# Entry
Amino acid sequence: MPTDRPATSASVPTALEAPVFVDANVFLRYVTNDIPEQADAVEALLDRAASGEIRLVTSVLVVAEVVWTLGSFYKRTKEHVRDAVLALCHTPGLDVEDRDGLVQAAEWHAEKNVDFADAYHAAWMQARGLTEARTFNLKHFRRSDGLDVNEP
# Structure
């Protein structure tokens, strides 16, 4: 029923009920510290999340964008990229979509010298019990154990 009365605190989402989406550029500023003032602002945001004051969320695509940018624009090694993804995925107060798949992909990206997207797709498949894939990119997919990979 519509009313002109102000909402009660029970009907207004709290910070923990209303998560805040975090985009790739925020994580990139923090990891690279290329703009120190922005990196400091990100650190303050992450501190608020760690203390439970705010809840942050991000997506698989954001993490993929971070990986691509660190590797291509910033020329970071796959090991550095892996470490950044692992740190991001284990940040207190940050909910990361498909955290386990991203962690596995970051490990394979560095250890098996596989493109991050291919590593993620292999992890995604394995998490769902899929064992067969069709691709023209046999080289990278065949580096994932337990997958039957062929051309179409």
